[in-house]
Amino acid sequence: MTTRLFGEPVARKEDGRFLTGRGRYTADFEPHAAHAAFVRSDLAHARITGIDTAAAGEVPGVLGVFTWTDLDGEVAERLPLLVPSDALVNPRTQHALARDEVCYAGEVVAMVVARDRYAAEDAAERILVEYEPLPPVVDLETAASPGAPTAHADMQDNLAGRVSEEHGDVDRALTAAPHVFGWRFVMERSAAMPLETRAVVARYDQTEDRLLIHDSTQAPTGVRFGLAMLFGMDTDRVHVVAPDVGGGFGQKVIQFYPEEVLVPWAARRLGVPVKWVEDRRENFIGSNQERGQIHDVRVGVDDEGRILGLEDRFLHDTGAYCSYGLILPIITAAQLPGPYRLENYRYELRSVFTNTVPTSPYRGAGRPHAAFVMERVIEKVAGELGLDSLDVRRRNFIQPDQFPYHVGVTFQDGGPTVYDSGDYERGLDALLAELDVERTRTELADWRRTGRTVGLGVAGYVEGTGIGPYEGASVSIDPDGTVSVATAHGTQGQAHETVFAQIAADELGTPLEGVRVTTGDTRRLGFGVGTYASRTAVVAGNAVLRAAQEVRRQAASVAARILEVAPEDVVFQDGSVHVAGAPDRRIPLGRLAMASNPTRYAFGRDAEEGARLSQLAYAGGDRPLPEGSRPGLAAVEYYSPTSGVFGFGFHGAVVEVDPETGEVRVLRYVVHHDSGRVINPMVVEGQIHGGVAQGIGGALYERIAYGPEGQVQNASFMDFLLVSAAEMPRIEQVHTETPSPNNPLGIKGVGEAGTIPVSAAIANALSDALGVPVDRMPVMPEDVLALVRAAE
Amino acid sequence: MTGAVDITLLVNGKTYTGRAEPRVTLADFLRDELRLTGTHLGCEHGACGACTVLMDGRTVRSCLLFAVQAQGHDLATVEGLAPAGGAEGLHPLQEAFHRMHALQCGFCTPGFLMSAYELLQSNPRPTEEEVRTWLSGNLCRCTGYQNIVEAVLAAAAEPEPEAHQ
Ligand code: FES
Ligand code: FES
Predict the structure, then answer these.
(1) d(CA A310, CA B46)
(2) Domains of chain B (ranges, CATH numbers)
(3) In the β-sheet with A34-40, what is the strand arrangement from edge to edge?
């Protein structure tokens, strides 16, 4: 038998081009296209009273200068709301170019297109915008208070939307509980910072009325449908390609960023290819951010720390606009219970406008906040009652026989939150064994006696992954035997070319090298949704399986006719089919592909043989293509899950604080992780490494610092410290596999898992080390020093 | 093009000539004029290392140099790292990055390869600590660095072939 590739740590197919400098990122296309540059508001809130573009138009090489008044049709309207919701009281999105009011520093006010980037930026500098400043509201809690300045001049308050839900009876539970505590938890702004910034290249062919766009996006299909509608073009005249994308982490899945509309619009208007590559400063002020929540929790427990009731009232900072609706805080609310049974749980969330960069999902997407709140609650309950927090966790776990488990609140997809499978006790045990927790605790006690400030923190999470609506896959076999797979979502380093090849190769009995995978090109597959929410391997992976199964069925039926056996007796192996028990009666897959397409005419070298086979295939039939069959070996199939599938894990961190400098060193970082069956363990481990790094960065180094007037004050890699190799500890991993019963492959998503519990684990470890509660994230050295002082 | 000048560069052992304004950065010139797009731009302010190339054997940030400043120097980019001739051949560093899964989106990879190349030239047997410190000038947002560090250590343990210089 061909060795099964599913589950094997096979090296990646996509690496070759990246290692040799032959990757194709959006900025690599059209080196001599005209370039767009944008003028962005430097005020967080103001009315535009005038724009003088005259001097810009005189810069040599300028092809066009545009403000809102130049926009036409739908493009002049506010951009679409990506995720509508009835609970949104003020569904406000921005204009592609600000019309008369700017609501965050960074909002696009004008666009220049010139022969190259240098000229475009020269001209952009000469545009003079006159503003009448309006009072900005920057701080989340202030924005939510009555009488606060409003982020939008025409609104009465800053409420974007509000949702509340209750499972059980929280008031009764809290009244009856022997102990009730109230705590506040805060997470500040951060951002995804993909190393490749956003970029768009658009070409418009006037003769054919066709638009082709390369976009560094996670979701090319949506951009395509949306642009066709905005421009009033037939969908089949618009194509969007997400080529190699240099990281996304959620930031590249907004529909739309203004530039994604304006660059293609300018290409149509000017009749030349137009390109825009965001610079890093623009990424800090013009690309979406996340985190930013304040939670006020009341929890009632019994003497053993069993949670009897929990209420969470929280604020979510949506920034200046809310194109992502209420998705982020809803995820937080749905995922807050994590691995714990909350029989009485109520949340009330308010999503609030501020004059800051809009927010949308960044790796973890509302879940790091949820894990932070819940795991701090567990730890603090244990502290108050003098219990071991590990025991408190165990007492509150959902038990293996309780699955499928209904959390009792609505999930991000609008359906009920139902965990498909899990074994949390086993996960925690696996972590503790890897951590060698008893030895670690002894070691920490010894270190403390020598004066070191060290601590251990543990945190768990449950992550809903693999949500719908659907993904598709096209699988076909070429005459040279290559299995060609195409999916429609973007890919940003998750090894989709490899893992989908593993799935297709197993099904069709070909070696990995015999499969070629294309992602994110609407010319290859038009229907799909996008890469986000740790969903792609699950949803598109199962679509690949289905399409490959259909192609296998077709191939088996053609082979059965040629070999004169039943389709069940056709064996797929090593890129060929043969008769079971008679390996020399074999046909290579490429020949079979030719045989399936009775064109009569010979093409290419092997065509004669193919034509002979196709005659054999249909000998005795009444027509060349039997009724019900199609030419070629090709299928497009879709997979739509009934609901999300829920991965889980536990992290353990050992930290040391330098009380003089406030520096925190992570001495050990141990990860337990369970995402069901694993397609490629090497890729899963890599996803965890990257996720943890973003988590540690987010916990200890990365904070978007807004000044009181609403400008980002650390908008460069000099001032916003991305975690580097020097700070990262070596990550230790242990895995369990609790398969999902909800999909044929038994898999769950893993993309965001690494990030979710890190802030919680670090906060618990720091609280342990310092002896004071750490209920606010991130904790930068100056915050640590303040905590050290508080402890004294 | 106003004020454009001829610029001749020696890159990966090959002489290239193009025209550009004196203010065009080395990175833009390599990418747009010479079509060597393996050199990437992640910040354009000298902080991320994605644009790292070698000039006379030492790493430089090509976003911080003008192309005209690089005339008369010997440049090497990621495209020249694999041994000459072998189409399939990879440099041991590239080979190790592949084997150890030291890249995900691949955007930072050329910069890491060039920095690691310089490290192994000057310190063929670095410790893990030395590798981490050396590479702290290159940012990666995908891998958490662990496999990059492993890959450099693995490549260091191998004999060095002739690089295409
Ligand atoms: S692009 Fe040159 S250092 Fe970042
Ligand atoms: S692999 Fe994506 S930035 Fe390093």
Answers:
(1) 48
(2) 5-80 (3.10.20.30), 87-157 (1.10.150.120)
(3) A62-66, A108-114, A34-40, A274-277, A199-205, A210-215, A238-241
The string of pLDDT tens digits covering residues A660-694 is: 999 999 999 999 999 999 999 999 999 999 999 99
CATH T-level fold of A32-134+193-286: Aldehyde Oxidoreductase; domain 3 (3.90.1170)
Residues of chain B positioned with their CB less than 8 A from the CB of A20:
38, 78-79, 81-82, 90, 94
Contact A194 B139 (CB under 8 A): no
Q: Tell me if B113 and A694 make a contact (CB, 8 A cut-off).
A: no
Q: What is the ipTM of this complex?
A: 0.95
Model pLDDT, residue B165 = 40
**Which residues contact ligand 2 via a Cβ below 6 A?**
A 195, 246-247, 493; B 103-108, 140-143
Angle at B149 between CA B144 and CA B154, to 5 degrees: 140
In B, residues 110-149, which contact A (CB 8 Å cutoff)?
110, 113, 131-133, 135-149
**pLDDT: which is higher, A674 or A620:** A674
- A513 CA to centre of own chain: 28
State mean pLDDT over A621-632: 81
What does the mean pLDDT of chain A come to? 95
Per-residue pLDDT, averaged over A333-357, amounts to 98
**pLDDT score for A662:** 96
Which CATH topology does A365-464+644-791 take? Aldehyde Oxidoreductase; domain 4 (3.30.365)
pLDDT tens-digit map of A462-474: 999 988 899 999 9
DSSP β-ladder status, A307-319 and A453-465? unpaired
Instruction: Tokens for A614, please give them.
Output: 């196709």
Taking an 8 Å cut-off on Cβ atoms, the answer to whether A246 and B31 are in contact is no
Most A CBs within 10 Å: which of B146, B150, B152, B164, as the mutation test of the A interface? B146
Q: CA A484, CA A17: separation in Å to the nearest integer?
A: 18
Q: Which of B78, B79, B107 has its CB closest to that of A247? A: B107
Q: How far is B72 from chain A (nearest CA, A)?
A: 24
Ligand showing the shortest atom-to-Cα distance for residue A725: 2
Distance (Å, rounded) from C-alpha B69 to C-alpha B26?
8
- What integer is the mean pLDDT of A529-539? 86
Question: Under 8 Å CB-to-CB from B19, ≥6 apart: which residues?
Answer: B1, B4, B5, B6, B7, B33
Whether the pLDDT of residue A374 is over 90: the answer is: yes
Q: Which helix (H) or strand (E) holds A644?
A: none
To test the contact with chain A by mutation, choose from B145, B149, B153 the residue with the greatest count of A C-beta atoms within 10 A, namely B145
Average pLDDT of A573-585?
Answer: 96
Q: What is the CATH number of domain A468-596+632-639?
A: 3.30.365.10
A468-596+632-639 shares the fold of A365-464+644-791: yes
Of the pLDDT bands very low, low, confident and very high (cuts 50, 70, 90), residue A643 is confident
pTM for the complete prediction? 0.96
How far is A218 from A243, CA to CA, in rounded Å?
10
d(CA A323, CA A84): 8
Spell out the domain ranges in chain A: 32-134+193-286, 365-464+644-791, 468-596+632-639
Q: Residue A353 is inside which H or E element, if any?
A: strand A345-353
Give the pLDDT confidence of A719-769 residue by residue, as tens digits: 999 999 999 999 999 999 999 999 998 999 888 999 999 999 999 999 999
Residue A12 forms contact with B (CB below 8 Å): yes
Ligand 2: nearest atom to the Cα of B103 = 1
The closest-lying atom of ligand 2 relative to the alpha carbon of residue B106 is 1
Structure token digits, residue A707: 């000044």
Chain B, residues 48-87, CB within 8 A of chain A, namely 48, 50, 77-79, 81-82
Q: Is the pLDDT of residue B1 over 70?
A: no
